[in-house]
Write a structure and sequence with these properties.
- This protein is an alpha+beta fold.
- The protein folds into three domains: 122 residues, Butyryl-Coa Dehydrogenase, subunit A, domain 1, CATH 1.10.540.10; 109 residues, Butyryl-CoA Dehydrogenase, subunit A, domain 2 (Beta Barrel); 146 residues, Butyryl-CoA Dehydrogenase, subunit A, domain 3 (Up-down Bundle), CATH 1.20.140.10.
- 52% of the residues lie in helices and 15% in strands.
- The strands form three sheets. Strands 3, 4, 5, 6, 7, 8 and 9 form a seven-stranded mixed sheet that branches. Strands 1-2 form a two-stranded antiparallel ribbon. The protein has a two-stranded antiparallel ribbon with strand order 10-11.
Length: 394
Amino acid sequence: MSTKPDIDTSDFYSFEHLLADDDRALLHAVRDWTTADVAPIVNSHWEAATFPFDVIPGFAKLGLGGLPYKGYGCRGSSFLLDGMVAMELARTDSSIATFNGVHGGLAMGSIYLCGNDEQRERFLPDMARYDKIGAFGLTEPDVGSGASGGLGTTAERRGDTWILNGQKKWIGNATFSDLTIIWAKDVADGQVKGFVVENSSPGFTAEKQSHKIALRIVQNALITLDNVEVPEENRLQNANSFKDSAEVLRVTRAGVAWMAIGCARGAYENALRYACEREQFGRPIGSFQLVQDLLVRMLGNITSSLALCARLSALQDEGVAEDRHSSLAKAFCTVRMRETVGWARELMGGNGILLEHNVGRFVADAEAIYSYEGTREMNTLIVGRSLTGRGAFV
């Protein structure tokens, strides 16, 4: 298979040059690693629905765990670099990007944002080195968008121990992670609290979810908590309501918007290469007007999404980003992603559904990115509330 098209064909306005030289060097290192070590194996793992554990040392060597967090073994980089790395990973494979988003964003982010200093010191260095892998348990079998008020998983305090009962669904990494952040409703005050739960705890089981059509490399689990005992020292000390868990989601939702751009770029770049190589009627199909129109539409979606996310990252780095900013980015970029991967498949005709051409994998994976970290509709309501001052959630 030939190499990817030149970066300028998808970063048309050179957004990566917004990065400092050292950060841009790391981005290029991630690109070289994914091209050499990840891209050749993802289709076989996607088809088999297995996770390539051999890639985890690559994440550790590059130091990608908890990129924007300062101290505790984390690099303390900008949110712009963090977003562009998420995009770069998704540009090769959305499942690989999701693995790191769950571990380094949701799990490490919960501890960094909602834990106390002792908990950060205890958990984050091992996670930054990928010696311990994290998962994030919020969604439940009967609770998705309604997590703010309807969690069924309960936590009951008995002395210095909490007893957790319930189920969590769609929990990425949880079949093999070392620890999972579990969000549960305190039976005493009705507030949502967060817990660092060791997966080896008695009563904790994680059953792999199968028969997925998207993100097949991601190992999602149905978690059952049957009187799982968690010490008070593992309760996230600064997570005392759903608002605190929402702070984590605000940060990671921006990362999902970046992943959506990466998914779109991966599909576009494979379609562009195909258009330059595939010949019909005696010449490459890239020389035909309708094909070029599709390519430009895809590039326009990618570029507009890049501009939105670059500004969002700047707001994050300034410390002024709000829920409404992340929600607009997630809603907009995932819609543009869905259009883009569809146009890429259209350009390739029947070949677009074959794994060997990669685009079909991006088309399928886009469906999961479109829904997780808040559906388009829920994110629209968050933005709509900020515009009108009126909530329309029910």
